[in-house]
């Protein structure tokens, strides 16, 4: 599975847009890009998934350039409740679901 | 719908004891997984099962065993617990027949302390 690299931590303020970029230089043709969110003392929760270009849902947007070697999770107008760890994962999950979570990005939203 | 339940919520265990962490899902997902989460190391896959009756090893399988007798249950057993197995354990499931890349749904976790 492709290895991912993302910032260890980020700080933001309420109401700002937050962009977290993940590098995955070795992404394979069949790989999807998925982001999870984890609050303290809880299991990770799916946020968004994409293969190429842009994907948007009610929570976030995911931007994927043409070469797919990176992706950017965009959280519009964050609130204090968005303080969490965000994980970027890359893989062809139909091959046994061996997800590699890495350390994630710890986002701290301040008032 | 409960989703995924794990039991116990937390447990303190003496080294050398046997322990089984329980995981049950009611979503009829065919795939299930066990992860451990340690500070600074993120989540690491212990074992997984793509379908009832089959299991596979993840990144850190040593000291753990699993079974998948049916679709809903995926217990994780520590045959002889050691302090390095102190961790938070998460169970997850996914419907890998849905096409594309499947999404994993996680349980609330079990906090295990081995003394």
Short description:
The complex is a heterodimer of chains A (111) and B (115). Chain A is mostly beta strands and 111 residues long.
Explain what you see:
The complex is a heterodimer of chains A (111) and B (115). Chain A is mostly beta strands. Helix content of chain A is 0%, strand content 47%. Chain A has no helices and nine strands. The termini of chain A are far apart. In chain B, the strands form two sheets. In chain B, strands 2, 4, 5, 6, 9, 10 and 11 form a seven-stranded mixed β-sheet that branches. In chain B, strands 1-3-8-7 form a four-stranded antiparallel β-sheet, with no helix packed on it. Classes of the chains: A mainly beta (111), B mainly beta (115).
Shape of chain A: globular
- What oligomeric state do these chains adopt? heterodimer
Mean pLDDT level of chain A: 89
The succession of helices and strands of chain A, N to C, reads EEEEEEEEE
Secondary structure: helix percent of chain B: under 10%
Question: Structural class of the secondary elements of chain A?
Answer: mainly beta
